[in-house]
Write a structure and sequence with these properties.
The chain has a single domain, classed as P-loop containing nucleotide triphosphate hydrolases (Rossmann fold, 3-Layer(aba) Sandwich). The radius of gyration is 14 Å and the shape is globular. The protein has 150 residues and is α/β, with parallel strands linked by helices. The model has no long low-confidence stretch (mean pLDDT 88). The chain has a 7-stranded mixed β-sheet with strand order 1-7-6-2-5-4-3. It is built from 3 helices and 7 strands. Helix 1 crosses helix 2. The protein binds adenosine-5'-diphosphate and magnesium ion (MG). Adenosine-5'-diphosphate binds next to helix 1, helix 2 and strand 7. Magnesium ion (MG) binds next to helix 2.
């Protein structure tokens, strides 16, 4: 989980590279199991932040992390297993069945979810909520709410 050493819970980034850097800091502090919920509109930077998080965890290179919008789930597996889920296109239960999401909480993993409000996710795992807001063309506000407060 995020440690108390994380200096600031709210940061502004002025480029996608800065957002990736912020993601890397978060990923370096995450320990499985953890559920990371990414809130924010289209283009807010959720997938960009995920590149950094996955890179920081060490499960894949940042350029290997792409949006799972159409496949719904991407899995990265170097050392730590990371599921990157995008629920934007979830429209019916059939989609849910093909997702196999019930399995992801049965192992030590890190699960990162874009559009988490689309689904009721039930888990005992520690949850980190991150809100991304589009402030200006290249500026994003990234707010981390670590409920476990480690
Ligand atoms: N500060 C920033 N942080 C993140 N993305 C940014 C930033 N400034 C501009 N962008 C651009 O905004 C878009 C964010 O897209 P993406 O990460 O896919 O968003 P989401 O997954 O939330 O829909 C990208 O085209 C990226 O280049
Ligand atoms: Mg996305």
């Amino acid at each position: 989980m995020l440690s108390a050493a994380v200096p600031s819970r709210e940061v502004f980034t002025n480029s996608s590279d800065e957002t990736i850097l912020r993601g890397r800091e978060i990923g370096e502090r995450l320990k499985p199991p953890a559920l990371v919920l990414l809130y924010g509109d289209l283009g807010a930077g959720k997938t960009t932040l995920t590149k950094g998080i996955v890179g920081g965890i060490g499960a894949a290179r940042e350029d290997e992390v792409t949006s799972p919008t159409f496949t719904l789930v991407h899995t990265y597996d170097r050392g730590v297993r990371v599921y990157h889920v995008d629920l934007y296109r979830i429209s019916d239960l059939h989609d849910l069945e093909t997702l196999g999401l019930e399995d992801v909480f049965s192992e030590q993993a890190i699960v990162i979810v874009e559009w988490p409000d689309r689904l009721k996710l039930r888990t005992e795992w520690p949850i980190v909520r991150i809100h991304l807001e589009h402030v200006a063309e290249d500026t994003r506000r990234i707010t981390v709410d670590d409920s476990t407060n480690l």
